[in-house]
């Protein structure tokens, strides 16, 4: 049986992570961990490399994806173009913030320059932002709906601009009230 490296890594990761919420058979490269209604949402001012300040309360009305990544992480680098495509296509309804783990400004700048990355990049120099969100697997993407409610964390890489990504972010556009009926 021949398996792609991403599939093998996904299966190994899924096996060590506990229950899988997303359909593992459809894509073993990621899973979705729900965010409990009583879990505290880390609140803080995020500052990107350009000096722009981002705060979750200010982004209400738009879907927010907080993508935690590192330059040494191959799956992180592989999913960046899809995140960028999605952010550009849905710019009126969505914000994607790329939060880099513990890399130097120069390393991040080189990555941005060589890849043409246009997403706002936030440095998590000490790993405090990742720790506050409970991020231990890279890439991981926090899903936040238009009301500012955290819906879950996607652990692993996927095609955010394709159908599997759309299945995850599209429901974030629906107000909580409409979903509970």
What does this structure look like?
It is a single chain. This protein is α/β, with parallel strands linked by helices. Helices cover 32% and strands 22% of the residues. It contains six helices and eight strands, in the order αββββαβαβαββαα. The chain has helices at residues 5-17, 74-89, 105-115, 128-133, 163-169, 176-180; strands at residues 30-34, 46-47, 53-54, 63-69, 94-101, 121-124, 140-144, 150-156. The protein has a six-stranded mixed beta sheet with strand order 1-8-7-4-5-6, sandwiched between helices. Strands 2-3 form a two-stranded antiparallel sheet. β7 and β8 form a beta hairpin. The chain is globular. The chain starts with a helix and ends with a helix. Mean pLDDT is 85; it is low at 1-25.
Short description:
The chain is an alpha/beta fold and 181 residues long.
List the helices and strands and how they pair.
Layout: H1 5-17, E1 30-34, E2 46-47, E3 53-54, E4 63-69, H2 74-89, E5 94-101, H3 105-115, E6 121-124, H4 128-133, E7 140-144, E8 150-156, H5 163-169, H6 176-180
Give structural attributes:
181 residues; alpha/beta; two-stranded antiparallel ribbon; globular
């Amino acid at each position: 049986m021949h398996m792609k490296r991403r599939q093998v890594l996904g299966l190994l990761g899924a096996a060590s992570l506990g229950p899988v919420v997303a359909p593992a058979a459809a894509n073993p490269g990621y899973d979705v961990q729900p965010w409990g209604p009583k879990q505290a949402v880390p609140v803080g001012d995020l500052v990107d490399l350009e000096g722009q300040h981002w705060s979750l309360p200010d982004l209400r009305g738009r879907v927010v994806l907080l993508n935690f990544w590192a330059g040494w992480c191959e799956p992180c680098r592989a999913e960046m173009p899809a995140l960028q495509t999605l952010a550009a296509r849905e710019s009126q309804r969505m914000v994607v913030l790329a939060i880099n783990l513990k890399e130097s400004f120069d390393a991040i700048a080189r990555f941005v320059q060589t890849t043409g990355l246009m997403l706002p990049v936030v440095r998590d120099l000490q790993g405090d932002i990742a720790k506050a969100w409970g991020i231990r697997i890279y890439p991981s993407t926090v899903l936040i709906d238009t009301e500012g409610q955290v819906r879950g964390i996607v652990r692993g890489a996927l095609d955010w601009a394709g159908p599997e990504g759309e299945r995850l972010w599209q429901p974030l556009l629906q107000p909580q009230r409409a979903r509970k009926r």
